[in-house]
Structures are given as C-alpha cells and as structure tokens.
C-alpha cells in the first residue's frame, strides 16, 4: 500500500511518536480512494507496487509524496477474547499473487480492527486512531517494536473496547518504489 505518512497529530499526546505508519487510513491516508478502481486484491491491498504505480499513472493520481508499505498479517485474529483463524471468504473471484519486495525494512507491528465477520478490509489502527499510543509504549512510528509486545497487549486487554470487531496483528515494512519500465520518476508520480 502507498500511504501519505503524517507527522504525529497534535491531539495524540505521545512524546515518542514522530510520525504514523499505521495500516488504518484514519491518520495516514491511503494514496487514493482506490476501491472503485478494483485493482486491489481480496485483502484490500495490492499484489505489487507496479499495480499502484500504473493505477496512479492511468488516473492522474500523484503518488510522489507517498511511502510504500508491505504488510504481513498474523494468521489468527482476536475476537471476543478468543484467537481464531480468518480468511477473505469465498466471495472474491481471484486469489492474490503478492510479490514480496526484495528489500524491506521492518518498522514495527500494528493492531488493526475488522468490523465485519471474516472481513478482509482493514478498518482502524487503535494505537493512532484511538490514541492508545498515549497509554502504551510504541516506537517513533506509532507501532509496537515486536510481535510479542503486540500479542501481549491484546492478551492482557489493552485494546478491549477500543473499536468493535476482531483485532489482527500486522508486521509493517517500508520498501522502496521500483522503477516502472523505462518511465521517468515524474511520469510514475503523475507530475
């Protein structure tokens, strides 16, 4: 996903947070309202950055100021105090063919809410959206440093009542944008 990274919002009273790398789009927006283009996969992300770049180019969307992220999600979600498996369900006709970046930098772990039963669409990141980073220790990107910190916070009720629905743990990686064929950077970014 390509996101417009924001500095820590003024209402988030957390001295350790410098910017927000959340999966949810409440604080750091996705590059566009991409759903209507139907280029995303069954997890509501993109299989590779080239799809984002071509969508941006075809639709005159400026992605020059965006940061590219790659996500990996833990195989279980927490719902009503119980860890359970999840899937995008049988409604999506095409399976994803995600291409992992050759180089990626682990930035931390986010907790993301999913309101609808077995929904693939991420909703909120309570560390930033609900301001839980004011009470919980996060890194400079408003993420937990380790999976164990995220898992423990969920198992000890730190996220109880923050948002309805299931909670999933995402590893958040930053990655570099690939060059799209022989196109110039200006052509890729739509400027």
Plain-language structure description:
With 191 residues, this protein is α+β, with helices and mostly antiparallel strands. The protein contains four helices and seven strands, in the order βββαβββααβα. It has helices at residues 49-58, 126-129, 147-155, 185-189, and strands at residues 2-3, 6-7, 19-20, 67-79, 82-85, 104-114, 166-175. Strands 1, 4, 5, 6 and 7 form a five-stranded antiparallel beta sheet that branches. Strand 4 (67-79) and strand 5 (82-85) form a beta hairpin. The longest helix has 10 residues, at 49-58. The radius of gyration is 17 Å and the shape is globular. 34% of the residues are buried. Mean pLDDT is 87; it is low at 182-191.
